[in-house]
Write a structure and sequence with these properties.
With about 210 residues, the protein is of the alpha/beta class. The protein has a single domain, classed as Vaccinia Virus protein VP39 (Rossmann fold). About 35% of the residues lie in helices and about 25% in strands. It is built from eight helices and eight strands. Strand 4, helix 6 and strand 5 form a beta-alpha-beta unit.
Length: about 210
C-alpha cells in the first residue's frame, strides 16, 4: 500500500494511469463507480459537498463544474495540488483519514459526504469510527456516499482474491457489506449497498 509520498509521486500520472487500467482488480468499472456516485447526488448546482480522499478530484470535479461547493481532504499534497488545479475555488485540507476528520469541518453542515477508493487505507475499526464522525457533519437530510473496492459477502471477496492472487494487496482493508451492515444500521437510519463491478461497490448512508 502506498504512503503519502508514494501518492505524491503518482499524482501527476494518476488520471492517465487509471484510464489505462480500469479493467480487472482493483479498478474494474472505475468510471461506472464514479458515475453511480454522481447520479445519486441531487441539487448538484447548490450542494455543499465534502470529498474525503479527494485525490486528483476525479470524483468531485464534475460536481464542482455543476456549481457545487467542494471541500476536499487528502493525505497527499501532490494529489491536492492536482485537485486544486481542476477546482481552484474549492477548499482543501491535508490530513490522513487515520487521524480522523479535521475539527475545522465540524460546523460546516454538508449535504453530501463522498469518497472514492480511499477508505481501504484505514482498518475496519477506524472505518466505523469514521462513519460515526461523518454523520455528525451532515445536514438533516444529508447523505454519505462511499465508493471503494468492496464486496457484498466474504465469499465474493475470497473469490476475487483467488482470481487475482498475484495482484492482491494484503495491506489494504476492503469492507464486506454483510459484515458491517448491522453496525451501520445502528448509526444511520438508512443503509444501502450496490455492487457496481466485480470488485467495487457503493455504500449510501442516510
Amino acid at each position: 500500500m502506498l504512503d503519502s509520498k508514494g501518492f505524491d509521486i503518482w499524482s501527476e500520472k494518476y488520471d492517465s494511469s487509471i484510464s489505462k487500467n480500469s479493467y480487472g482488480y482493483p479498478f474494474e468499472g472505475y468510471y461506472n463507480v464514479l458515475n453511480f456516485v454522481y447520479d445519486n447526488i441531487d441539487n448538484k448546482t447548490s450542494s455543499k459537498i465534502l470529498d474525503i480522499g479527494v485525490g486528483t478530484g476525479l470524483l468531485s470535479n464534475k460536481l464542482y463544474d455543476d456549481g457545487a461547493q467542494i471541500w476536499g481532504i487528502d493525505f497527499s499534497q501532490g494529489m491536492i495540488e492536482q485537485a486544486h488545479n481542476k477546482m481552484p475555488s474549492a477548499q482543501f485540507i491535508l490530513q490522513d483519514l487515520n487521524n480522523g476528520i479535521p475539527s475545522v469541518l465540524k460546523d460546516k453542515g454538508f449535504d453530501y459526504i463522498i469518497s472514492s477508493y480511499a477508505i481501504h487505507h484505514i482498518n475496519d475499526d477506524k472505518k466505523l469510527e469514521l462513519f460515526k464522525s461523518l454523520k455528525s457533519l451532515l445536514n438533516s437530510n444529508g447523505k454519505v456516499i462511499i465508493a471503494d473496492v468492496a464486496f457484498k459477502t466474504s465469499d465474493d471477496l475470497n473469490q476475487c482474491k483467488r482470481i487475482n492472487e498475484k495482484k492482491w494487496d494484503n495491506e489494504e482493508f476492503y469492507f464486506v457489506y454483510n459484515e458491517i451492515s448491522e453496525t451501520l444500521a445502528h448509526i444511520f437510519c438508512k443503509v444501502n449497498y450496490t455492487q457496481v463491478s466485480s470488485c467495487a461497490g457503493v455504500l449510501i448512508l442516510e
